[in-house]
Amino acid sequence: MAIMLAPETNELILGIYDTVTDPDRWDTVLDRVAAAVGAKECNVFQGDAVEQELESVWLSPGLADIFTTPSYQPALVEEQKTYAAIQEIVTESRLIASRDIQAEYHRRGYPPVDMSQIEAILDRDYGIRSRYTAPLNREPHHYEFLTLHYPHHYDDPRFPADRVALGDLLLPHLAKAMAINRPFVLLKRRFRAVLEVLDRFRLGVLILGEDLSVWLSNDSAQEIIGNRDAFQLRADGRLTGVSPHARSALAEAVATLCQGGEGGPARSVRRRFGDPAVREPYVADFSLLRSAELGTASGERGILAVIVDPERTSIVNGERVGELFGFTPAEAAVFDLVVRGHTNREVADIRNVDPETVATQMKSLLQKTGCRRRGDLVHLAHSVNIPVDHL
Known about the structure:
This protein is of the alpha+beta class. It contains 15 helices and twelve strands.
Protein backbone atom coordinates (compact mmCIF):
# COMPACT_ATOMS: atom_id res chain seq x y z
CA MET A 1 0.00 0.00 0.00
CA ALA A 2 1.46 3.35 -1.04
CA ILE A 3 1.97 5.91 1.71
CA MET A 4 1.30 9.55 0.93
CA LEU A 5 3.97 11.72 2.51
CA ALA A 6 2.49 14.42 4.71
CA PRO A 7 4.06 17.93 4.70
CA GLU A 8 5.64 17.25 8.09
CA THR A 9 7.31 14.13 6.65
CA ASN A 10 8.76 16.14 3.80
CA GLU A 11 10.09 18.62 6.37
CA LEU A 12 11.63 15.72 8.29
CA ILE A 13 13.41 14.51 5.15
CA LEU A 14 14.88 17.98 4.66
CA GLY A 15 15.95 17.94 8.31
CA ILE A 16 17.76 14.64 7.79
CA TYR A 17 20.02 16.30 5.22
CA ASP A 18 20.81 19.12 7.68
CA THR A 19 22.98 16.57 9.52
CA VAL A 20 25.37 16.31 6.56
CA THR A 21 27.67 19.13 7.67
CA ASP A 22 26.46 19.34 11.26
CA PRO A 23 26.37 15.89 12.92
CA ASP A 24 25.36 17.55 16.20
CA ARG A 25 21.85 17.81 14.77
CA TRP A 26 21.38 14.05 14.70
CA ASP A 27 19.81 13.81 18.17
CA THR A 28 17.04 16.26 17.24
CA VAL A 29 16.47 14.62 13.84
CA LEU A 30 16.30 11.15 15.39
CA ASP A 31 13.77 12.36 17.94
CA ARG A 32 11.61 13.52 15.01
CA VAL A 33 12.13 10.22 13.17
CA ALA A 34 11.02 8.28 16.26
CA ALA A 35 7.86 10.40 16.56
CA ALA A 36 7.07 9.98 12.85
CA VAL A 37 7.26 6.17 12.96
CA GLY A 38 5.54 5.78 16.34
CA ALA A 39 8.70 4.65 18.11
CA LYS A 40 9.76 5.53 21.64
CA GLU A 41 13.42 6.09 20.70
CA CYS A 42 15.74 5.89 17.71
CA ASN A 43 19.47 5.65 17.01
CA VAL A 44 21.93 5.37 14.13
CA PHE A 45 25.37 3.78 14.29
CA GLN A 46 28.37 4.37 12.03
CA GLY A 47 31.37 2.06 12.04
CA ASP A 48 34.57 1.22 10.17
CA ALA A 49 35.08 -2.47 9.51
CA VAL A 50 38.72 -2.15 8.40
CA GLU A 51 40.67 0.67 10.05
CA GLN A 52 38.49 0.86 13.17
CA GLU A 53 39.00 4.61 12.93
CA LEU A 54 35.36 5.59 12.64
CA GLU A 55 32.81 4.62 15.27
CA SER A 56 29.99 7.03 16.02
CA VAL A 57 26.54 6.60 17.48
CA TRP A 58 23.77 9.18 17.55
CA LEU A 59 20.72 8.75 19.75
CA SER A 60 17.39 10.38 20.35
CA PRO A 61 17.42 12.16 23.75
CA GLY A 62 15.74 9.35 25.70
CA LEU A 63 18.71 7.02 25.01
CA ALA A 64 21.40 9.63 25.61
CA ASP A 65 22.99 7.89 28.61
CA ILE A 66 22.91 4.26 27.49
CA PHE A 67 26.46 4.26 26.07
CA THR A 68 27.91 6.14 29.04
CA THR A 69 26.48 3.89 31.77
CA PRO A 70 29.33 1.53 32.80
CA SER A 71 27.05 -1.31 33.91
CA TYR A 72 25.52 -1.49 30.43
CA GLN A 73 28.82 -1.93 28.56
CA PRO A 74 29.10 -5.76 28.66
CA ALA A 75 25.58 -6.12 27.28
CA LEU A 76 26.24 -3.56 24.52
CA VAL A 77 29.46 -5.25 23.49
CA GLU A 78 27.61 -8.56 23.23
CA GLU A 79 24.89 -7.03 21.07
CA GLN A 80 27.41 -5.37 18.72
CA LYS A 81 28.54 -8.82 17.58
CA THR A 82 25.19 -9.16 15.85
CA TYR A 83 25.29 -5.73 14.26
CA ALA A 84 28.81 -6.25 12.91
CA ALA A 85 27.27 -8.89 10.60
CA ILE A 86 24.05 -7.03 9.88
CA GLN A 87 24.86 -6.31 6.22
CA GLU A 88 25.05 -10.05 5.56
CA ILE A 89 22.04 -10.94 7.69
CA VAL A 90 19.63 -8.28 6.39
CA THR A 91 19.75 -8.56 2.62
CA GLU A 92 16.88 -6.15 1.91
CA SER A 93 16.74 -2.38 2.37
CA ARG A 94 13.97 -2.45 4.91
CA LEU A 95 13.47 -2.55 8.66
CA ILE A 96 13.60 -6.03 10.18
CA ALA A 97 12.42 -7.08 13.63
CA SER A 98 15.29 -7.63 16.05
CA ARG A 99 14.01 -11.11 16.92
CA ASP A 100 14.18 -12.08 13.23
CA ILE A 101 17.72 -10.69 12.93
CA GLN A 102 18.79 -12.76 15.93
CA ALA A 103 17.21 -15.90 14.50
CA GLU A 104 18.96 -15.44 11.14
CA TYR A 105 22.25 -14.67 12.92
CA HIS A 106 22.19 -18.00 14.74
CA ARG A 107 20.85 -19.89 11.71
CA ARG A 108 23.95 -18.83 9.77
CA GLY A 109 26.19 -20.29 12.45
CA TYR A 110 27.83 -17.12 13.75
CA PRO A 111 29.36 -17.26 17.26
CA PRO A 112 26.58 -17.45 19.88
CA VAL A 113 25.30 -14.13 21.25
CA ASP A 114 23.34 -13.64 24.46
CA MET A 115 20.85 -10.82 23.83
CA SER A 116 18.89 -11.34 27.04
CA GLN A 117 21.00 -8.84 29.02
CA ILE A 118 20.51 -5.86 26.69
CA GLU A 119 16.83 -6.71 26.22
CA ALA A 120 16.32 -6.76 29.99
CA ILE A 121 18.08 -3.40 30.38
CA LEU A 122 16.04 -1.78 27.61
CA ASP A 123 12.78 -3.07 29.07
CA ARG A 124 13.58 -2.25 32.69
CA ASP A 125 15.25 1.15 32.29
CA TYR A 126 13.85 2.52 29.02
CA GLY A 127 10.45 0.85 28.55
CA ILE A 128 11.57 -0.64 25.22
CA ARG A 129 10.12 -4.07 24.36
CA SER A 130 10.80 -4.49 20.66
CA ARG A 131 13.14 -3.10 18.01
CA TYR A 132 13.45 -2.84 14.25
CA THR A 133 16.79 -2.41 12.48
CA ALA A 134 17.95 -1.76 8.90
CA PRO A 135 21.43 -1.40 7.38
CA LEU A 136 22.05 1.95 5.70
CA ASN A 137 24.73 0.86 3.21
CA ARG A 138 26.18 -2.18 1.48
CA GLU A 139 29.82 -1.10 1.50
CA PRO A 140 32.42 -3.66 2.58
CA HIS A 141 34.55 -1.17 4.54
CA HIS A 142 31.93 0.84 6.43
CA TYR A 143 28.66 -0.08 8.03
CA GLU A 144 25.81 2.08 9.23
CA PHE A 145 22.42 1.07 10.53
CA LEU A 146 19.23 2.52 11.98
CA THR A 147 17.35 1.06 14.94
CA LEU A 148 13.83 1.97 16.03
CA HIS A 149 12.84 1.19 19.64
CA TYR A 150 9.18 0.52 20.48
CA PRO A 151 7.39 0.36 23.85
CA HIS A 152 5.11 -2.50 22.71
CA HIS A 153 5.77 -6.15 22.00
CA TYR A 154 5.60 -7.24 18.36
CA ASP A 155 2.28 -9.02 18.87
CA ASP A 156 0.71 -6.18 20.86
CA PRO A 157 -2.38 -4.87 19.00
CA ARG A 158 -1.17 -1.34 19.76
CA PHE A 159 2.03 -1.92 17.83
CA PRO A 160 2.07 0.64 14.95
CA ALA A 161 3.07 -1.71 12.14
CA ASP A 162 1.92 0.77 9.51
CA ARG A 163 4.35 3.35 10.85
CA VAL A 164 7.28 0.97 10.39
CA ALA A 165 6.47 1.11 6.67
CA LEU A 166 7.00 4.87 6.84
CA GLY A 167 10.39 4.15 8.37
CA ASP A 168 11.25 2.12 5.26
CA LEU A 169 10.56 5.21 3.14
CA LEU A 170 12.97 7.26 5.25
CA LEU A 171 15.83 4.74 4.89
CA PRO A 172 17.23 6.01 1.54
CA HIS A 173 17.42 9.56 2.92
CA LEU A 174 19.07 8.45 6.15
CA ALA A 175 21.52 6.32 4.15
CA LYS A 176 22.44 9.19 1.85
CA ALA A 177 22.91 11.60 4.76
CA MET A 178 25.15 9.10 6.57
CA ALA A 179 27.26 8.49 3.46
CA ILE A 180 27.80 12.20 2.87
CA ASN A 181 28.26 12.79 6.58
CA ARG A 182 31.06 10.22 6.90
CA PRO A 183 33.89 12.45 5.54
CA PHE A 184 32.91 15.27 7.92
CA VAL A 185 33.02 12.91 10.90
CA LEU A 186 36.45 11.70 9.77
CA LEU A 187 37.61 15.30 9.38
CA LYS A 188 36.59 16.13 12.92
CA ARG A 189 38.22 13.01 14.29
CA ARG A 190 41.48 13.63 12.41
CA PHE A 191 41.75 17.40 12.65
CA ARG A 192 39.94 18.43 15.86
CA ALA A 193 42.89 17.80 18.17
CA VAL A 194 45.17 19.66 15.76
CA LEU A 195 42.82 22.65 15.66
CA GLU A 196 42.65 22.81 19.44
CA VAL A 197 46.44 22.87 19.64
CA LEU A 198 46.63 25.60 16.99
CA ASP A 199 44.30 27.72 19.13
CA ARG A 200 47.23 28.07 21.53
CA PHE A 201 49.36 29.34 18.67
CA ARG A 202 46.86 32.15 18.06
CA LEU A 203 46.28 30.92 14.54
CA GLY A 204 42.82 30.83 13.00
CA VAL A 205 42.43 27.57 11.09
CA LEU A 206 39.55 26.51 8.84
CA ILE A 207 38.99 23.52 6.58
CA LEU A 208 36.82 24.62 3.67
CA GLY A 209 35.15 23.11 0.66
CA GLU A 210 36.05 24.41 -2.78
CA ASP A 211 32.87 26.49 -2.59
CA LEU A 212 34.21 28.04 0.68
CA SER A 213 31.67 26.16 2.83
CA VAL A 214 33.14 25.85 6.33
CA TRP A 215 33.66 22.20 7.19
CA LEU A 216 35.67 22.73 10.35
CA SER A 217 37.17 25.66 12.28
CA ASN A 218 38.95 26.30 15.55
CA ASP A 219 38.03 28.88 18.20
CA SER A 220 40.59 31.41 16.95
CA ALA A 221 39.09 31.30 13.44
CA GLN A 222 35.59 31.72 14.85
CA GLU A 223 36.78 34.73 16.83
CA ILE A 224 38.33 36.30 13.72
CA ILE A 225 35.14 35.74 11.74
CA GLY A 226 33.11 37.11 14.62
CA ASN A 227 35.07 40.37 14.51
CA ARG A 228 33.53 41.00 11.06
CA ASP A 229 36.38 43.33 10.12
CA ALA A 230 37.66 41.18 7.23
CA PHE A 231 35.73 37.90 7.10
CA GLN A 232 32.17 36.81 7.74
CA LEU A 233 29.89 33.82 7.17
CA ARG A 234 27.09 33.88 4.65
CA ALA A 235 23.67 32.56 5.59
CA ASP A 236 24.49 29.29 3.81
CA GLY A 237 27.62 28.75 5.95
CA ARG A 238 30.20 29.82 3.37
CA LEU A 239 33.17 32.02 4.18
CA THR A 240 33.17 35.41 2.48
CA GLY A 241 34.83 38.80 2.80
CA VAL A 242 33.29 41.84 4.44
CA SER A 243 34.39 44.18 1.66
CA PRO A 244 34.28 43.75 -2.13
CA HIS A 245 38.10 43.67 -2.13
CA ALA A 246 38.16 40.86 0.44
CA ARG A 247 35.53 38.87 -1.47
CA SER A 248 37.52 39.29 -4.67
CA ALA A 249 40.75 38.22 -2.93
CA LEU A 250 39.06 35.08 -1.56
CA ALA A 251 37.64 34.15 -4.94
CA GLU A 252 40.99 34.74 -6.64
CA ALA A 253 42.85 32.65 -4.04
CA VAL A 254 40.47 29.71 -4.52
CA ALA A 255 40.69 29.97 -8.30
CA THR A 256 44.49 29.98 -8.14
CA LEU A 257 44.48 26.92 -5.88
CA CYS A 258 41.88 24.89 -7.71
CA GLN A 259 42.37 25.96 -11.31
CA GLY A 260 45.67 27.83 -11.53
CA GLY A 261 47.22 29.23 -14.68
CA GLU A 262 49.53 27.79 -17.27
CA GLY A 263 51.52 25.96 -14.62
CA GLY A 264 48.42 24.32 -13.17
CA PRO A 265 46.91 24.76 -9.68
CA ALA A 266 49.07 26.34 -6.99
CA ARG A 267 49.79 24.36 -3.84
CA SER A 268 49.37 27.41 -1.58
CA VAL A 269 48.39 31.07 -1.86
CA ARG A 270 48.85 33.97 0.56
CA ARG A 271 46.66 37.07 0.74
CA ARG A 272 46.10 40.04 3.07
CA PHE A 273 42.61 40.95 4.26
CA GLY A 274 41.31 44.06 5.98
CA ASP A 275 41.37 47.84 5.71
CA PRO A 276 44.85 49.15 6.67
CA ALA A 277 43.22 52.44 7.72
CA VAL A 278 41.24 50.56 10.38
CA ARG A 279 43.62 47.86 11.61
CA GLU A 280 46.63 45.72 10.70
CA PRO A 281 45.42 43.44 7.89
CA TYR A 282 45.09 39.72 8.49
CA VAL A 283 47.49 37.46 6.63
CA ALA A 284 45.85 34.28 5.30
CA ASP A 285 47.54 31.25 3.77
CA PHE A 286 45.36 28.93 1.65
CA SER A 287 46.54 25.42 0.83
CA LEU A 288 44.89 22.71 -1.23
CA LEU A 289 43.94 19.50 0.57
CA ARG A 290 43.46 16.49 -1.66
CA SER A 291 41.21 13.50 -0.98
CA ALA A 292 44.05 11.42 0.47
CA GLU A 293 44.71 14.11 3.07
CA LEU A 294 41.03 14.56 3.89
CA GLY A 295 40.07 10.89 3.98
CA THR A 296 37.18 11.64 1.60
CA ALA A 297 35.95 10.25 -1.68
CA SER A 298 38.40 10.09 -4.56
CA GLY A 299 38.73 13.39 -6.35
CA GLU A 300 37.15 15.45 -3.57
CA ARG A 301 39.31 18.38 -2.46
CA GLY A 302 39.29 20.89 0.35
CA ILE A 303 41.13 24.03 1.35
CA LEU A 304 43.14 24.61 4.51
CA ALA A 305 43.04 28.29 5.53
CA VAL A 306 45.44 29.56 8.20
CA ILE A 307 44.78 33.14 9.30
CA VAL A 308 47.29 35.20 11.29
CA ASP A 309 46.11 38.27 13.16
CA PRO A 310 49.13 40.63 13.44
CA GLU A 311 47.48 42.45 16.33
CA ARG A 312 47.64 39.25 18.40
CA THR A 313 51.35 38.64 17.87
CA SER A 314 52.82 40.99 20.44
CA ILE A 315 54.91 38.12 21.81
CA VAL A 316 56.84 38.04 18.53
CA ASN A 317 59.89 40.30 18.75
CA GLY A 318 63.35 40.63 17.28
CA GLU A 319 65.25 39.88 20.45
CA ARG A 320 65.04 36.06 20.34
CA VAL A 321 65.55 35.88 16.60
CA GLY A 322 68.45 38.29 16.99
CA GLU A 323 70.10 35.93 19.45
CA LEU A 324 70.11 33.23 16.79
CA PHE A 325 71.35 35.39 13.91
CA GLY A 326 73.54 37.95 15.69
CA PHE A 327 71.41 41.07 15.20
CA THR A 328 72.66 44.33 16.64
CA PRO A 329 70.17 46.05 19.01
CA ALA A 330 69.22 48.45 16.22
CA GLU A 331 68.67 45.61 13.75
CA ALA A 332 66.54 43.75 16.30
CA ALA A 333 64.36 46.85 16.73
CA VAL A 334 63.96 47.21 12.95
CA PHE A 335 63.20 43.51 12.62
CA ASP A 336 60.47 43.82 15.27
CA LEU A 337 58.79 46.68 13.39
CA VAL A 338 59.05 44.96 10.01
CA VAL A 339 57.43 41.82 11.40
CA ARG A 340 54.52 44.00 12.51
CA GLY A 341 54.01 45.15 8.95
CA HIS A 342 55.66 48.59 8.89
CA THR A 343 57.30 49.92 5.73
CA ASN A 344 60.86 51.25 5.69
CA ARG A 345 59.53 54.82 5.75
CA GLU A 346 57.33 54.05 8.77
CA VAL A 347 60.23 52.35 10.55
CA ALA A 348 62.39 55.42 9.92
CA ASP A 349 59.70 57.72 11.31
CA ILE A 350 59.10 55.57 14.40
CA ARG A 351 62.82 55.25 15.13
CA ASN A 352 63.54 58.86 14.12
CA VAL A 353 66.37 57.87 11.79
CA ASP A 354 67.18 58.45 8.14
CA PRO A 355 65.40 56.11 5.65
CA GLU A 356 68.78 55.19 4.14
CA THR A 357 69.86 53.92 7.56
CA VAL A 358 66.81 51.65 7.69
CA ALA A 359 67.52 50.42 4.15
CA THR A 360 71.06 49.49 5.18
CA GLN A 361 69.80 47.71 8.30
CA MET A 362 67.22 45.83 6.23
CA LYS A 363 69.95 44.67 3.84
CA SER A 364 71.95 43.41 6.81
CA LEU A 365 68.91 41.58 8.22
CA LEU A 366 68.33 39.77 4.94
CA GLN A 367 71.98 38.79 4.67
CA LYS A 368 72.24 37.51 8.24
CA THR A 369 69.03 35.46 8.01
CA GLY A 370 69.43 34.24 4.45
CA CYS A 371 66.04 35.71 3.55
CA ARG A 372 65.37 37.24 0.15
CA ARG A 373 62.42 39.52 0.90
CA ARG A 374 60.46 41.16 3.71
CA GLY A 375 57.79 38.47 3.74
CA ASP A 376 60.42 35.85 4.46
CA LEU A 377 61.37 37.75 7.61
CA VAL A 378 57.77 37.50 8.84
CA HIS A 379 57.79 33.74 8.22
CA LEU A 380 61.07 33.49 10.09
CA ALA A 381 59.71 35.40 13.07
CA HIS A 382 56.76 33.05 13.47
CA SER A 383 58.77 29.89 12.93
CA VAL A 384 61.43 30.83 15.49
CA ASN A 385 59.24 32.61 18.01
CA ILE A 386 55.74 31.14 17.65
CA PRO A 387 52.99 33.30 19.20
CA VAL A 388 51.79 30.65 21.63
CA ASP A 389 49.43 31.21 24.54
CA HIS A 390 50.84 29.63 27.68
CA LEU A 391 48.64 27.32 29.74
